[in-house]
Write a structure and sequence with these properties.
The chain is an alpha/beta fold and 281 residues long. The chain has 13 helices and seven strands. Helix 1 packs across helix 2 and helix 2 crosses helix 9. The radius of gyration is 19 Å and the shape is globular.
């Protein structure tokens, strides 16, 4: 047996031991693998729950419904209200903590209604070394993270997704739209909509991995893979991109010469917070 096969079997056995579970399901590769594992291990005793709010990129809710149907897992959509929480809107480095607390708390209050015993997240082994305030919320709500508990890395879960023929096996990471807004700048629905419009436009040009970071003063900082940076600097594409992002509401459009980096805004997080997060993971 390969190491991944052993981890897969351990994952299925761990989830089966829950008896029943609700998977926090975003339609990303992490939670999709967990949802598939839950369906295999528990059948109708597994449920996928998707939180819908302005921070969800356009099309992702439809993608969640499509994937749940493909997997064969029961699916429930709930409305989350993090936008009504001042601590979330002010967008400090712990913003994700307030968002995840809202989601996990709402699911926890529905456990009896949903007929499940455990909430499950898609956190994986690689998340333990990053700044993830949402993992604090998971601990507080006693959310289980079977991928993390089984030591399954991002690369391994993508391989597992391919083995299970899940179409998201190579899907780029799609964190919530609020994660594009620089810390300290209020995370409003209007700003998240600007980011969503800009990123959808850039993906329509063929960029699969792309981020549009929102900085104070309606400044857009575009991140694409480093080898694609020159193509955005050439006319007439450069002028077209500027025009489209200004239509989305940005006043200034910049291109990050370092290229795409997942979680690049975490470089703005104070070192002591990063150290605290890593120590708790």
């Amino acid at each position: 047996m390969t190491d991944l096969t052993k981890k897969r079997d351990r994952l299925l056995a761990l989830i089966e031991s829950y008896g029943s579970c609700a998977v926090a399901f975003s339609a990303g590769v992490d939670s999709t693998v967990v949802a598939k594992a839950a369906q295999l291990a528990l059948g109708d005793k597994a449920l996928a729950v998707t939180g819908d709010s302005p921070s969800l990129a356009e099309g992702e809710l439809d993608e969640a419904r499509r994937l749940a149907k493909l997997i064969g897992i029961r699916h429930r959509v709930i409305r989350t209200d993090e936008q009504n929480q001042p601590e979330y809107v002010r967008n400090a480095p712990d913003r994700c903590y307030h968002c995840k607390t809202e989601l996990f708390t709402k699911i926890a209050k529905m456990l009896d209604e949903l007929g499940v015993a455990v909430i499950v997240s898609g956190a994986n082994a690689d998340d333990a070394g990053d700044y993830r305030p949402g993992m604090k919320a998971a601990r507080e709500q006693r959310v289980r993270s079977p991928l993390l508990e089984c030591g399954i890395t991002k690369a391994e879960l993508r391989e597992l997704a391919a083995q299970w023929e899940l179409p998201v096996w190579d899907k780029p990471a799609m964190p919530c739209l609020a994660s594009r807004i620089a810390y300290g700048v209020e995370a409003t629905p209007e700003r998240m909509s600007m980011v969503d419009d800009a990123e959808r436009y850039l993906r329509s040009l063929g960029f699969r991995e792309v981020r549009v970071r929102y900085h104070h003063g309606d400044v857009a900082r575009i991140e694409v893979p480093a080898d694609a940076v020159p193509s955005l600097c050439q006319s007439p594409r450069r002028e077209e991109v500027i025009a489209q992002l200004k239509l989305a509401g940005f006043k200034f459009v910049s291109l990050d010469l370092e290229g795409f980096r997942s979680g690049s805004l975490n470089t703005l997080v104070p070192a002591e917070l990063l150290a605290e997060s890593t120590a708790r993971s």
